[in-house]
Each structure stands twice: as C-alpha cells, then as structure tokens.
Amino acid sequence: MLARCCNALLHRYSTFLYNYPQIFLILTPIFLLICVIFSFVPPVGPDAPDFSEPTEGFEPRGTDIMKRVVTQQDTLKAAINDGQLTCTPPGNSTTTRKRRNSQTLKICDPYYYRYRSVVTVYESGDDLFNMKDLKAICNIEKKIIPVTPAYLLFNECRTSLSLGTSIASIRNRSSCQEITEKDVTYAKNLLDNCTSAYFNRELSDPNSPSNECTKNKDFIKNVFDLLVDIDFMRNTKELKITLALSPRLYDTDFARDIYEQHLSGNLPEQDSVKLVAFKFGDFRFDQFNLKLLTDAIFPALGLVMVAIILLVYTHSVLIMALTIFSVITSVIIAYFIYHQIFRLTFFPFLNILTFIFLIGIGADDAFVFNDVWSQAKLVIPNGSIIDWIEYTLSHAALSMFVTSFTTSAAFYANVVSDITAIRLFGIFAGTSILIMYSLMITWFPAGVVFMEKRRRRNVGVETWELHENPVIEHAPDKTTPTPDDGQLPSSDPPSPAKAARHPSDTGFPSNTQPSSQSCPCMYYNNVRSKCSKFMSDLFGTWIPASLRGYPIWLIAFLALGIGMACAVTVSPGLQRPKSSDFQVFSSSHILEQYNLKYKSKFRLAQTNENNFYVYIFFGFKAEDNGNYLEPKNFGELQYDSSFDVLKPEGQKWFLEDLCSDIRKQKFFGQNISWTCYPEVFRERCTSSMNWTLPLNEIQLESCIKFYYRPECHNFDQFFNGLFFQGNKIKGLSLVFPTNVPFTNDYETVDNLWSDIQDFSSNVLDKAPEGMQNGWAISWMRFYALQKNLGSSTITSLGVSLAIAFGVMLLTSMNWVVSVYAIVTIICILATTIGSLVLNGWELNILESIVISVAVGLSVDFTLHYGVAYIVSSEKGRVDQVKSALGHIGPAVTLAAITTFIT
C-alpha cells in the first residue's frame, strides 16, 4: 500500500516536472536573488564574516571545567570592569605609587617587553655570547624594525631589549655597538655567579651573600626571564639561541611592511647569526585572514577542474552548468538560513570548507543522475520523457536521499560537540547538503526536462534516438517498466541520418559525432574514448572478475581496518594537542616557527613562577549562562546567595583551617613569595585589635578598613582577596601555588585536575554554613579543549554511524546490507584516521573537522553502493553486485576524484 502510494506520488511529480519545469527554473533564481540580498547587502544582511581571530570559537562551552574557567576569567572580570564589584569597600582610599622617570634608565618596564614587543629569535651554530655576535643581533634587529615615532609605545621604550643592549645598560654604554669584549665577559661571569640566586629567588633577599647580584638584579631577571633559553647556565654555558624584543604599538600595516620587506624571502643574517623566527601581536592571524582571500583562487580552480570533468564525462555544457549552479546556490541559501532563519551570528572560517566538499557531493549526485537517466533510455527505449523522469527519480532520488540525509546527519551530529566552531560547522554543512539534495530533485531535473522538450520541439518528434552512455554500457534490467496510461504517445526513433543532423542536447553523453573534426576535437574524443574504455573495463570486467576471490578481499581489508583501528586506539594512539597555539601556516613558515619550535625554549611566554596555581572562589556560582553559539557571549556573573562570611563556623573555618588544609595537599608547592592571606588577616585582626574569632560585622569592617589595601583596577586572574558590592562582601578568592610545572601535556594537567577535584570534595564541599559551594580551578582553558576534543569526536562518530545505520535499515529493510555498509564505513574511518596518526597528526580542531568530513563522504559513497545493490532488478548476489558496480561505480569514482581535486 505504501509502495503504491509512493509510486503514485512519484508519477504525479514526474508529470508536474514535465508540464511545468519553468516553475523551478524561474523560482529558484528568484529565491537565490532574495537570499543574496538578505545575506550580503549591508542594510538588510548580516555583517560580513570576520576571520581576523581564526581561533575564536575553538573552546568547549557548558562543561564543568569551562564553567569554572569562564567564571574566573570572563564573567568575574566583566563584573569588576562594569563596576558591579569592587575590591575595596566604599571609603577605603588607595594610593597608586607613581614610577619615577629616571633620566639614566635605558630600559623600560619589562611588562612592555614581555607583552607589547616585536619578538625576533636568533640562532647560531656556535656560542652567541660574544661581542661580535651580540652586535650582529643588534644590527639585524635595527635593520628590520625601524624606530618609527608613530609606532612607539612612548619615548622611554625606544630601546630594544637584547643581550647587547642589556649589557650596554649596566656598563654605561650609549648603545649596543659600544660594548667591548670586557663588558661581555663581565656580564657572562655575573650571570654565572648569580644563577643560583635567580633560581632560588634570592635576588631580592637583603640577606643575600652576593651584593653584586642584588645590585644587578634587574639585568639578571631580564636576561633569564626574557632573553636566553631555559637551558642556559643550568645545563650548558653556551648560548645557542636568544631573543630580541622591540616594544611597538601593534599595527597590521607596520607588521606587514616588516614581513614583506625582510621576512617573506631569504631571512636576514650577518656572519654566523641568523634570524629564525618572528612574532608580533596577532599578525600571524591577520596574515592568515589575508591569505584566505588571496587563496580563494585555489577552490575556484578546483571548481573549474570539476567543471571540466563534468563536461568530459557527460559531454554536456548543460549538466556542467546545472551542477555548478546547484553547488553555489546551496552555499548561498545555507548561508541565508544560517543567519536569517537560525539567527546565528558567528561564522567560523571552518564553514568555508563546506564549499570544497560540497563540490564533490554535487558532482557525485550529477554523475548518479546522469547514469540513471542514460539507463532509463536503455530500459524504456520507446518511453516518453515522463517515463524517463519517473524511472530516474525512482532510482537516483532514492539513492541521493539516503546518502544526502545520512551525510547531512553525519555533519549535524557535530551539534553534540561542546566546541562552538565544530557545532556551527556541523549546522552549516548539514544544511548545505540538504539544500543540495532539494535542488537535485527540483532544479536539476527541471533543467534537463526543459532542454529535452526544447530539443524535441526543434526536431519535431516526441521521441529520440537511443543514446547510450559511452562511459559504461548498462545491460537493460530484466524487468522493463512500461509507460503509464495517459502519457504522451511515443513514436519511432528518427533515422540515423536525421539524428546526425540534430545532435543530442539533453546534457548527457551521445555517440553521435560530427562528420568532420578539427585536431582539438579529435584529441578530445580520443582521450574521452580511452577514459570511457578504462571505466568500462574497470567496472565491467576487472572488478567483477576479482569478485571470485572475495573472501581474500574481505579478510585483507578487514585486517587493514582492524590494524589501523589499533593504531588509533592503542599504539601510537590518537594524541591530543600539546600546543595551545593554533597553527594556520605550514610548520616551516617563518610565522609559525616561534610558536612551534622556539616558544617553549624561553621563559618569555611562561608565567612568573612557572608552576600551576590553584584559585579558590567563594560567593560565585561556576556557571556559563551565555549563548554557547556565540564565542564572546558568556552571560553574567551569578552570585551564591548562601555565601555569608559572617556566619561563625564558616568564618572560623576560612581564617583558621583552610590554609592548613591547603598545605596538606600533595600538589601544594610552597615558595617564598606566597603567603596565605587568611592567616595574615586573622593575625592582624585578632592580635593587633585584641579580638577573638568569630568577628562580628562591625569588627570585620574595621579590620578591613585598617589592614586591607588591595587594588583591582587592573584585575586579572591572579587576584587574591575580597570582592565588594557596596559595603557587602559578595565573594572572595584565594590563590595558592602547586608543585606542578606549567605545561600543556594532557596527562600532567589531567592528573592536576583530578587532584583539584579531590581537594574540592574533601575540603571545600565539607565547609561549614556560609562558606559552602566553594570551587577551585587552575589554568585549564586549553586543557578543557584537549579533554573535550576526544570525547566530542567519539560521540559525534557514534551518533553519525547510528543514524546512517538506522536510515539504511529503514530504507532498505535489509539488515545484512546495512551491517555491511556500516562495517565498511568504520573501516574507511579507521584507515583514514590511522593514516593521520601514523603521520604524526594530533587531534586538534582541524583534525576533528577532517574526521567529520571523512564520516560524511564515506557514508555518501558507501550508501550509494548499498542502495544500488538493493534496487537492482537482477537475480542473485553476484549479478546484483555487478549491476551496482556498473550503475554507481563510475559516478562514485569521479566524485571521489573531484573531491580530491577540490
């Protein structure tokens, strides 16, 4: 009953397409124009995508870790900047110490060198710590980074910081070029003698035995903190690499001038010293944004090559034009729906990848439609256009529906990911594929029907000579459908002579050739004939002949899939990323060298203490109530209504017990610069004021007024103290050091996170009334991404495969074929991911997108074969396999080629 109803609907739709193809041919461009207006015209359309921050959106949202990170680093900071919270109660005046402007200072504040400088890295095969090489570094730096007044932070920061200028500053030289060999020797001996004082944090100790180290502590700290690698004076006395830091206001044009004039070709060098890396602000991302625009020519060239393949395969400008139009239209309509219907504002640059693989999917659908249409003319040689449409849609539309639905579902499955960019990519890609399918069953056949009817009117007959697909000849099915009653009558095909005078313009291959050909035409037909013969032999003879040994093929490919799966899951395993820096250029690119190769070798980008710190918060809920589909929308800070520091038990626990509990933790690491401020606060309020705990409200306010003097006008994540809203304490934070060195290694940070959770459950969760609901976190924004990438990717894969299996089973009602299809898809994915793992890839954002695309394409190609096998009218498994190969093999092969090209 259902099949009969579907056949009736299909017949009516085929008749409608035949009678009114112009409806789709007119309405589709009109709708496209509307989408263009509401997508790209500024008054009514959204803002153009901004890819200046390509890493934006590359973080999970809504996870337990990220809720804490967002509260610590985003919403709490926003509340302070907006004036909702202060770090001192009203009436407490704080004074800001002003820095004296000494006329003798040659070096400005280290903050500007660390965070506001052009960073250049220099390398030599020999020891760089000599006068000649240090002067060479100064010369190279001065040559490539001009002292342009417009880009200076301020006049005091004119001087670049390098070993040469640092030595000049302590030896009273006016410039780097005036230092002597004696100055260099003095500086190296000073660093050697003061190494232990630096690493033991004794440079500021008034009881330090070395007055020379204390006297030159700024020089020593600058050298070790900013200029030399972490091994210098610890593991080796030779300096192989060093930095130069030039404070400048960041400007894209200024940075691009430096890059294009000095760094885009041969890198500057003098004697044995060579500049090997360069970093300035976000110039790497700005350059990437520019390259996205200039490199758009490559997808365009890929589209041209796909168009040529379409033209060669189908022998039709029409099919080529319809397919290219469908691809472009799909992307534009999806963009319109993305912004105007779904109301999504953030458009990550990953969405651009949709256009690339959509070309392959569109070509795949066109090839399938082309082959089935050619088969329809073979099966129903005397049928009408309606017969051919109905036959084509009954076979091609089903195949395209199954593959399009499952492929889009594979991309939509990314919605389960917590990472914003991956989630949005899945929405955009899935929507584009569904729109492509809609066009392939409306616009595409309407164009074919319109041209077929027009050609027939020109010829003056209702039917046309049978044209076989020269790519592969299909044997007619044993069961040949007959035209339905009421369809247009069919007449005999015209004579060959008449056919030659009116070559086919249906958009499909024809064996009709002109009587005379030019050399290019002869060459084209010769190449096309050889390609056709190769395809015919491959899918008509060679592969069917190899089916005799199918057990060997099954065992071999299954073993390959299992082996690659072991490579992914066991050894070497799919590794999580170790660098928090998102790579946008090749590893050898000058703009990537600092992050990939040299950054970890210096202390410049490391924290002052080089160890993780743990931050405890009370009074605030660890929540992320923003829009998870907008990277910068974190919502508002949520307060814990149960927090009350005046509750006796809670106050005593915070001031008396918490610090001792912290020191008992196995990951706690004491250093001389850290004090537990609740203990200091308690001592001042009880001993100095002769009060006892718990303090009442008046006593607490008095103690805060006299002894509490923090400043948070430059609040950052290191703040340690109280937060006020008016006179009321709304929250507090406590920071303590750990013994875990700062790293991006997943296992190390994962162990620290486990320790923090244990600390929370054993200490914070057992806090008395008033101090309950406290929580702890560390520097774990990148760890949250590492942790989520693995789980989200596996979840998306599982959802995609489950949907593909369900759709295949429902449409085919054949569980054996469905299981074979899913096993094939799993083996394809295992082989693809395993190949990446064996090549040293780590599971980062782009790699997870590659996996998503691999899922979509493997589902698309595999299910084409499954559907073709099921709908085949042949009897016997071998004949059904041969029929499926003949019908789908060339189309899928060329679709894979076009996808690879793009």
From TrEMBL:
Task: Specify the superkingdom.
Answer: Eukaryota
Signal sequence range: none
Its main localization is: membrane
Q: Where is this region: Disordered?
A: 472-517
Record keywords: Glycoprotein, Membrane, Transmembrane, Transmembrane helix
Gene Ontology MF terms in the entry: transmembrane transporter activity
Q: Which Pfam families match?
A: Sterol-sensing (PF12349)
Q: Where in the cell is it found?
A: Membrane
GO biological process annotations for this chain's record?
Answer: smoothened signaling pathway
Instruction: Give the InterPro entries listed for this entry.
Output: Dispatched_Hh_regulator (IPR052081), HMGCR/SNAP/NPC1-like_SSD (IPR053958), SSD (IPR000731)
Q: Where is the composition biased (Polar residues)?
A: 507-517
Tell me how this protein sits in the membrane.
Multi-pass membrane protein
Spell out the GO cellular component terms annotated for this protein, sorted alphabetically and separated by semicolons. membrane
Transmembrane stretches, by residue range? 20-41, 292-313, 319-338, 345-363, 393-412, 424-446, 550-570, 789-811, 817-838, 850-872, 884-901
Q: Which family does it belong to?
A: Belongs to the dispatched family.
Instruction: State what protein this is by name.
Output: Dispatched homolog 1-like
**Species, as recorded:** Paramuricea clavata
